[in-house]
């Protein structure tokens, strides 16, 4: 098992997953809490806003009631003036005083009566200013005159007293419904208890109510400098008030001109169309909410932290089996444990994973065993083959080699790995085989022979190089198969030798005769010394065969060849051409006489009876002689000798004849 493979990842994944789960749970809890808080805040704002508006509506209704009540009161005073008294200012005073006393209230600053032209006719209280006053041009007087109905003035700063007042006016009509007098009752807005009462409704400690006309003139405001000022007189914009002037009623959140956020509520008075407004600074309104938010934030944070921690612990525990699976796999890889530890896992997906691993590794181990066995078999075969098997890389070094290298060169397989060819086979041999190797690296299978001494014994080896082609077409290395051809070569040589020797007689056969004659003729031409050729045939050999059998015939042939061999010079070559036909090449014969002498010697030698298994056999031979000439071809020389033989036969056999060209 290899140990160079990358190590298994450490337990970071478990830690990371647990941390991610913890952070997610923490974030989710915090998010849920904060969004719930946001919803609660919105709800609370609505509650506060609605509450403000309800209170304001109550106050407005209260003011309306008071205004209408007073208007009715003044109207009742005016219409209650007896007909004879309507322009009798003197008589009117005690009447009015009596009536006002009846009301039992001190709510009016003064009751003043103007005539139809607007001139002041009667004042129940003493006026601090000039006695001559005219009401023409005032909004309440003109409106009363015009509508002949009771009216409420816009808020006014009294020219007489400097008080902030409103005036309730009612017409006094004569029988012709003409306005003959206008009764007015002035009310000090701020002292009458009319605003004071509603100011008790101010929201919180920093909130307040304010009142303005439909046109935006401030009637009541805690900041006295703004009284009777238009709202626009203070720089800045209050969106709420702008909208209220445009007709909005209800509550909203807006930024005040001083820059702080507030809840504003607006309600119009029915009697005067004035706008009663409440401002409740958000800072105070939501102070409890802020505390609540802080508390909620901390408790949510705590809760989220606890939940996150819990998630962390749970995920850590859930992943523990995965950790143990990882540890088991690591132990298996380190050979500290067998794969069996994976089999008996939990009954869940991780256990499944372990069992799947086990199955996979069992299959792997099985195929590993099979591969090892097959490799062993192959190793056994290759190591016992009388063949060198190796793989040579591009650096001309052996990558591996079989045991034959050890047997032949004394280099073990372990020592061979990485060893250069030159070191194993010798520099010279290596130089001889490099060209063939290069061809193999070029992508071609190559076979060549090489002579290498193996354990001191010169051997002829045949090497075959097979390129190891890669998928990309390159050649990574070369498989080398080398076998010893020495014995084959020897046999081959023997065979070749055999092919040149006559098997029956052991002298040269026709083939060797042809080769020898060829070379002998060359030599004869170079030395200018002619050679002689004798063509021999055993006389009536058929008869010997016929009378003694073929075996005896063979014995005669063998003896004939032997006598021929011993009867000639070492430089001469006797050969059997076929059947009972023989030839002898006499090199450097010199003369015809010499040739005839030799032929005569042969004829003589063959007359001696042949000792055979069938007893002595008498035989003789006829010889045809020819001498080579410079321009005479081999075939012509042979034909000449044959022709001479024919002549010798014709002359009665047992003798020789010379070719007479
Ligand atoms: N025993 C034996 N006989 C052979 C062999 N080769 C050829 N013969 C026989 O040798 C005889 C040769 O006969 P020929 O050369 O035609 O005639 P011959 O009887 O020698 O007569 P002449 O040549 O006219 O003197 C034939 O009968 C062949 O069958 C052989 O290897 N062994």
What's the helix and strand layout?
Layout: H1 12-79, H2 89-103, E1 110-115, E2 120-123, H3 139-147, E3 151-152, E4 156-157, E5 164-173, E6 179-188, H4 194-199, E7 208-212, E8 218-220, H5 239-245, E9 250-255, E10 261-268, E11 275-281, H6 282-285, H7 287-318, H8 320-333, H9 349-384, E12 387-393, E13 398-401, H10 404-409, H11 413-416, H12 421-425, H13 427-441, E14 446-454, E15 457-469, E16 475-484, H14 486-498, H15 510-527, E17 532-538, H16 541-548, H17 550-567, E18 573-578, E19 581-586, H18 592-605, E20 610-612, E21 615-617, E22 621-627, H19 634-650, E23 656-658
Bound molecules: guanosine-5'-triphosphate.
Structure, explained:
This protein has 661 residues and is an alpha+beta fold. It has 19 helices and 23 strands. Among the domains are: 70-188, 2-Layer Sandwich (Beta-Lactamase); 335-376; 385-491, Beta-Lactamase; 499-658, Reverse transcriptase/Diguanylate cyclase domain (Alpha-Beta Plaits, 2-Layer Sandwich), CATH 3.30.70. Strands 1, 2, 3, 4, 5 and 6 form a 6-stranded antiparallel β-sheet that branches. The protein has a 5-stranded antiparallel β-sheet with strand order 8-7-11-10-9, sandwiched between helices. Helix 1 packs antiparallel against helix 7 and helix 16 (541-548) packs across helix 17. The longest helix is centred in the first third of the chain and has 68 residues, at 12-79. Bound molecules: guanosine-5'-triphosphate. Guanosine-5'-triphosphate (GTP) binds at residues 504, 537-543, 545, 550, 553-554, 557, 579-580, 649. Guanosine-5'-triphosphate binds next to strand 17, helix 16 and helix 17.
